[in-house]
Specification:
94 residues; mainly alpha
């Protein structure tokens, strides 16, 4: 299994955020679950734990995770690794 470092974890989370922001259905669901508005995303993304929340969003819904991974040729296992490396993301495995 591929191992990633904290920089790669950060990049994965940013890429996942960009991916969901380009899909209106995913973005709507993400905003509804987080309680933020679209115009607050840039500010929220600077907060510790926000990027971990993005990864948790994908991990909590396997079809969304697999859609991202298929489209980007990403190993789904990297999401769990990345989550553990990000602020606010260290928790038990899903």
């Amino acid at each position: 299994m591929q191992k990633i470092d904290s920089d790669e974890a950060h990049s994965l989370a940013i890429n996942a955020l960009v991916f969901l922001s380009q899909d209106s259905e995913l973005l709507s669901r993400f905003l509804a679950l987080t309680g933020i508005t679209a115009d607050q995303i840039r500010l929220a993304a600077q907060e510790p734990g926000f990027l971990a929340g993005v990864l948790q969003f994908f991990l909590a819904h396997e079809p969304t995770l697999l859609h991202y991974c298929t489209e980007t040729d990403t190993d789904p296992a990297l999401f769990q690794q990345a989550l553990r490396l990000l602020p606010g993301g260290h928790q038990e495995a899903y």
